[in-house]
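anyone seen this seq b4? input:
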Amino acid sequence: MAALQRRLAAFAAARDWQPFHTPKNLAAALSVEASELLEIFQWLTPEQAERVMDDPESAHRVADEVADVLAYLLQFCEVLGVDPLVALAAKIDRNEVRFPVRRRGGGGGGGGGEDGGGAATGDRHSSE
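predicted toks r here
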């Protein structure tokens, strides 16, 4: 991860792009690239979305957008001095406390409902 951040920083420095790599600009670019990733899936059915990597052209588009999202995220973290792996580990730790495992009658799986978390109890998503 650090090597990729250094490579991205060197790439930007060689092109004198650092003045433009402000936290605001990088956050905006990250949002745009995430939206471009979403655009690939916009009108697909759930079944089509699950098979998107089966088509070489769409698989290439997905991989390119994932790379763009990750590149801007890593640059954003570098500019602000955030270690993305430390930040993610800390977030998972907090979410494990915030969203404890709940046993459901009859076994695992599934979400939501009165006894299993989800919208009825206010749990929404692990990344919040």
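The helical segments are 2-14, 23-41, 46-50, 56-80, 84-98. DSSP finds five helices and no strands in the chain. kinda curious what u guys think
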